[in-house]
Amino acid sequence: SLPLQIMRLLCGPHAALIPPSRPLWGLLSKSGTPPAQVACRAGPGTQSLPGPSDVLECNTLRPHLRSRHSPFNESSHFSGRFVSDEDRVMLNAIYFSSSSPSADRVRCSAPVAGLGEKAGLVVPPTSSGGEAEAEDVCIPLPTWGMRAGPRESIYFEPSLTRAASEGAVVTVGGLCPGLNDVIQGLVRKLRDYGVPEGSTFGIRYGFQGFYSKKHRPVVLTGRSVEDIHLEGGSILGTSSIAPDYRKIVRMIDLMGLDMLFVIGGAGGHMGATQLEALLTQHGVRCVVVGVPKSIDNSILLVDRCFGFETAVNEAQRALFAAKVEALSTWHGIAVVKLMGHASGFIALEASMASGIVDACLIPEIRFLLDGEAGLSTYLDRLLQRQGSAVVCVAEGAGQHFFDTPHRDRAADRDVGPWLAAALKERHPGAYVKYIDPSYLVRSVPTVSSDRTYCKVLAHNAVHAAFAGFTGTTVGLVNTHYVLLPIPFVTQAPRRVDPQGNQWNRLRAANGQPNFT
């Protein structure tokens, strides 16, 4: 048979069909039943993977809505390849045969109600954590997630809704490359569904724009979002100020909105959760769908957040400039502070990619400044050996140095200037330069990979909304697009594993110790 021929090409001439006892694909078929199972013959010790009953479910408003056929068909906008609610994505694609300490600790054992002990996500503590955060946190993780994409049945009628009743878009939190790309993608995909031109509103300057008398919502049209992806920032503006969610619910009801798209990070998604709960409580039928934004790449479970690759690319420019500064003086030390309150992914990836960073400091790992194992001693050796050094520090690193009563203000806990001053004090003969490119990194337009990613995320958010899902966000998990309940991804930030391959690859590349 053709499947057997394919497997023999992949596995060798002795490959054989095995009974369909273990699903090998991350995705199930449209009907929800596993396709014919083909695999290399199982070796000793192989265990069966769990079945598709253990699913990370998402809330819907479907019981209160009427289903109808999707406007997409084989002749317009779409090829007819719809996604079923029974399609599944495996949330953890790796099976570990042992608990070797050298393996990435991406899973653990955690109790799940009604399911017994199940795999879980490991979230390492931050370097500033107290006794309560001294150990890893294990978050229960079901085996399967719901696949994102267009459904054959939708639960809103695009062409019969009045102006402003179809959808609204809001950006929440700090700037991040790709905000305009997502806004553009949302507006254009709503238009593909048949939403009349001008029936989508943009909420100005965060959640407060719903009820602010200074900033009225704006109409988003295909013309108004044309070419906005070429600009950085957000055409709607953004804000992190805590809003009055009850006022927002009243405005959503008055405006007759059916859909609200929240582009935000953990804080914005927590706000979306509060809104969804209040909308349900007051009987307002409006779905709330998120698009996860984190320049730190700190959204739990998601492979990467939009804007992250752009940020890493831009951060390298600052590191290259720092290298030039360090090389241009005798015993030059350049300190570069990058974003990363709780997660050090930008600092780690930019350091790895640039290949010029001598010491990378991240929030997940405490570091010593003094002593034989300290950073200062290591820099002494570097200056003697190579004459210069570049230090990359994430903004959340080293917070344990500030656990004193007189350092309560955020400005007093800024690790960048503090570290530069501390190194200058300890190396009086060195020239210490400090660079903070944060605002440059987050305000630029996206690179091509992020630009494409933003579009796909936006499209899947619209698909989720028309399918009636609420309290849901979309993300890339194990290279597949998945619908995720917002409360799950806001439990804890995604962090670098200090015992994992990613961090140890960097240490192998630049030769730095852990400074502990």
Automatic annotation (TrEMBL):
One of its GO terms (molecular function) is metal ion binding. GO terms for biological process: fructose 6-phosphate metabolic process. It comes from Auxenochlorella protothecoides. It holds the Pfam family PFK. Gene3D superfamilies: 3.40.50.450, Phosphofructokinase domain. This is Phosphofructokinase domain-containing protein. It comes from the Eukaryota. Keywords: Kinase, Magnesium, Metal-binding, Transferase. The keyword Calcium does not apply. The keyword Transferase applies. Residues 168-464 form the Phosphofructokinase domain. Its cofactor is Mg(2+). PANTHER family: ATP-DEPENDENT 6-PHOSPHOFRUCTOKINASE 1.
